[in-house]
Design goal:
The chain is globular, with a radius of gyration of 20 Å. It starts with 8 loop residues before the first strand and ends with a helix. The longest helix has about 35 residues, at about 175-214. The protein has a two-stranded antiparallel sheet. It has helices at about 40-60, 65-75, 85-100, 105-130, 150-165, 175-214, and strands at about 10, 30. The chain has two domains: about 1-35, no CATH class; about 40-214, no CATH class. Helices cover about 60% and strands about 5% of the residues. With about 210 residues, the protein is mainly alpha-helical. The protein has six helices and two strands, in the order E-E-H-H-H-H-H-H.
Length: about 210
């Protein structure tokens, strides 16, 4: 049924292509079919993810010694961590966050962000499986600690899914002033909701620790 334009594989002549989708057999170019999702959603997701990465980079670059301790606590590196790693990771996250705001490198930034979020989720999940749930995740700002949990793994998977949604080909149309106003308001609302969920999760984990202590 052609009237349903979901994310199916289709020839290029019937859709707008995503640049990184590989060639199919018989030398035909195949790609993700254009969906009905409005480009405004793409901009909102990109702004949200940009805020996530830039704020995370700011925390690491502001206190590199703290992030060094976090890396050591994860016990994933075969050698002791160094504050230089905080600068590397922080600058990488900042580059991803800025790249998400630039149309010509947004696809590269999205893919890099998906890889970074997946690595973080795997690192958290690996330590949880080892029973080390009392270590700081390193995702909170200075003066705040948030133990790792499966909620953080789910959060990262959700962010990866959002990032992947921006790679789907969308209808090309000119954005008018109401679109940009909607984008700004929706992005601010998404950031507030994301931050609020993080605070609620952090408080819930602290409350659970207090209950176990009593």
């Amino acid at each position: 049924m052609r009237k349903w334009r979901w994310m199916f594989i289709a020839p290029r002549r019937e859709s707008t292509c995503v640049p990184w989708v590989p060639m199919h057999r018989k030398h035909r170019s195949w790609c993700i079919r254009q969906t009905d999702m409005d480009p405004v959603y793409n901009h909102v997701i990109s702004l949200l993810l940009s805020w996530v990465f830039i704020s995370a980079a700011w925390h690491k670059l502001r206190q590199p010694d703290r992030f060094k301790v976090v890396l050591d606590n994860y016990q994933l590196l075969p050698f002791p961590a160094h504050t230089f790693y905080a600068w590397i990771v922080g600058l990488m996250e900042a580059a991803i966050g800025i790249g998400l705001l630039l149309g010509n490198v947004r696809t590269t930034a999205v893919v890099a962000g998906m890889v970074v979020l997946t690595v973080y989720a795997l690192a958290i999940g690996f330590n949880l499986l080892r029973g080390r749930s009392d270590i700081d995740c390193g995702c909170s700002g200075p003066g705040s600690q948030q133990p790792i949990s499966w909620h953080l793994v789910v959060r990262n998977i959700f962010l990866v899914t959002l990032a992947g949604a921006t790679l789907v080909a969308m209808p090309l149309r000119a954005l008018v002033w109401i679109d940009w106003l909607t984008t700004i308001c929706a992005s601010l609302l998404a950031i507030v909701i994301y931050q609020g969920c993080g605070i609620l999760l952090e408080n819930q984990l602290k409350l659970n620790e207090m209950r176990r202590g009593t």
